[in-house]
Structures are given as structure tokens and as C-alpha cells.
Amino acid sequence: MSTRTAVVTGASSGIGEATARELAKQGYHVYVGARRFDRVQRLAEEIGGTALELDVTSEDSVRGFTDAVERVDVLVNNAGGAKGLAPVLEADLDDWRWMWETNVLGTLRVTKALLPKLIASGDGLIVTVTSIAAMHTYDNGAGYTSAKHAQGVLHRTLRGELLGQPVRLTEIAPGAVETEFSLVRFDGDAERAAKVYEGIDPLYAEDIAQIVAFAASRPAHVNLDTIVVKPRDQEGPGRFSRRPTN
Ligand code: NJP
User: Fold this and answer.
1) DSSP secondary structure, 173-190, as one string
2) Cβ of 176 below 6 Å from ligand 1
3) What radius of gyration, in Å, describes the C-alpha atoms of the chain?
4) Distance 34 CA to ligand 1 centre (A)
5) How do residues 221-231 score in pLDDT, each as one tens digit?
6) Residues near 6 by beta carbon (within 8 Å), at least 6 away in sequence
7) What is the pTM of this model?
8) Which residues contact 123 (CB under 8 A, 6 or more apart)?
9) What InterPro entries does the record point to (predicted)?
10) Could you tell me if the CB of 35 is within 6 A of ligand 1?
11) HSE toward the beta carbon, residue 88, CA cutoff 13 A
12) Which residues touch 50 (CB under 8 Å, ≥6 apart)?
């Protein structure tokens, strides 16, 4: 049998990077894509995979990326994130555009392009990393929660549309994972980003990567539809148990 192949978008940091490592450990040849090519190149060297530049907001970039992938058994739609935290009244249209372009249309572009190859593999799996923000709303978060809801709806719709095809679909909806997520959300403000995880034991990228690998290692007839995973210290988007810090 030829080597099983996985594609991970947004593999230059956080959950995507850890997932690529975990899938490589399982024997997959992993195509890793992101805009920061130096990072994915280093990762590909480490795990014996293939690095490709990828901007999921660009049609041309997605075409170049997906054309270079000859075979795909597992697609991990991970590229995404948040920009800002503002009430609707003060919504920054550019932030909203970024979030919708990256999380929603980015997932659509990559999935649409790779779907024929996933079907052709005979046992394809699409894992989409959404969020608990795909299931709840929270004040000042509508740009992100609306984008994650839309991404979730896109993914869940495929579950029905692909019935009868040899493709499984798993949505992973994490709570707080300590990655570069908050740094990106707060435009590089490290102090503000650190506060998100202050006084809690957050999830780490490896925790999510292990769940992706678990889903990918189930037999072909087992479809894990939705996995919601949060730190023990978190009940919902804005509800944490925080230890006092000095
Ligand atoms: O964040 P981070 P996570 N084209 O910032 C890439 C969701 N999530 O690992 O292009 C291609 O470390 C970016 O690469 P680069 C979250 O919404 C997280 O936490 O080089 N790639 C980087 O590799 C997201 O969907 C938390 O900048 C693009 C990666 O995305 C997923 O988990 C909670 C791109 C982001 O890595 C991974 O995020 C939750 C583009 N245009 C959901 N734009 C959490 N961390 O708490 C960005 O509920 N990327």
C-alpha cells in the first residue's frame, strides 16, 4: 500500500504544527502549508514531510498548493484565528473580513479543491478545527463567533452532502489552547495575550493534535462527528476558574 498522506493548513505554529508532528509519527507523509514558509520548511525537514507556501485567502495560492498535493487521505482544516475583541457597535470591518476570509472562505477553498482527491483515496477524512465559538456567542466576539459558526456550518453540511462517499468528517471545537492565537488576536500585544491564560491550566497544541490523530486512526466505518474539548478550568467562552496571581 502506498504511504497515506495528510494535509495540514496553518502548520507554522500551534495546533497545526503539533498535528503535523503527530500525524507524521503515525506514518503519514504530511504536506504542511502556511504563509510563513521558513517555519513550515523547518517542520517538514524535521518530520520528513513537504512544505508548501499557502495563503488560504488567495485563490492562486490555494490552487498552487492543492495542485502540488497528488494524493490526500486526511485533510486538517486548521488555518484560522481571531482579530480583535470589539462590540458590534465598534466592529472593525477589516478585522471581520480577515476572520471570514481565513476561517470560512479559506476552509471552503481548500476543501473544495481537495475533495475529489479525498474521495479518490477510498477512505478520506476531513478534520476541521472550529471552536467553542462555533457553538456559543460572547460579548465583543461576534466577528470571530460568526466566522467560526459559519465554518462549522460549512463542515457539518458536508457531512450530509457526502453521505455515500468514502469520506469521514470530524469537527474539533476547542476551548482555550495556549498557542499564538491570542498574540494574533491582540496584534502582537504579548502582555494582553498572556492574560488570557493567566491562572488557568489551558490546553496545549499537543492535546488537540492527539485528538486529530485519534480520529484519523479509527477504522473506516467509524465517524467521530464532533469533539468539544476544553481545559478543566473552563466551562464556556468567558467562564473560567482562575487561580489568583500576584
Ligand atoms: O493559533 P496560531 P492556533 N493562510 O495562531 C495560520 C482555532 N482555535 O494554533 O500563515 C494560511 O498558533 C498561521 O500561519 P501563517 C483557531 O481559530 C484556537 O490556536 O504562517 N495559513 C498559523 O499556522 C484556528 O482555526 C483556539 O501565519 C494561515 C495558524 O493559522 C486553529 O484553532 C481556540 C492564514 C494559526 O496558528 C489553529 O489556531 C479555539 C492564511 N491566510 C479555536 N492565516 C485557541 N488557541 O485558544 C493564519 O476555540 N494562518
Assistant:
1) EES-EESSHHHHHTTT-H
2) yes
3) 17
4) 10
5) 999 999 999 99
6) 20, 23, 28, 29, 30, 31, 72, 73, 74, 75, 76, 216
7) 0.98
8) 73, 166, 168, 220
9) NAD(P)-bd_dom_sf, SDR_fam
10) yes
11) 6
12) 29, 30, 31, 32, 44, 68
**In whole angstroms, what is the distance from residue 54 CA to residue 110 CA?**
10
Task: Please state at what angle helix 37-47 crosses helix 14-25, rounded to 10 degrees.
Answer: 20
Please tell me if the CB atom of residue 26 comes closer than 6 angstroms to any atom of ligand 1.
no
pLDDT in tens, 19-62: 999 999 999 999 999 999 999 999 999 999 999 999 999 999 99
Q: Which atom of ligand 1 is nearest to the CA of 184?
A: 5
Superfamily of domain 5-233: NAD(P)-binding Rossmann-like Domain (3.40.50.720)
CB under 8 Å to 119, separation ≥6 — which residues? 165, 166, 167
Contacts (Cβ under 8 Å, ≥6 apart) of 206: 18, 22
CB of 151 shorter than 6 A to ligand 1: no
Q: Ligand 1: which atom is nearest the Cα of residue 134?
A: 48
Grid coordinates given for 53 = 507556501
For residue 74, give the H/E element and its range. Answer: strand 74-77
In angstroms, how far is the first alpha carbon of the chain from the final one? 57
Residues designated as active site:
144
Q: How far is it, in rounded angstroms, from Cα 122 to Cα 220?
A: 9
Helix, strand, coil distribution of the chain in percent, nearest 5: 45, 20, 35
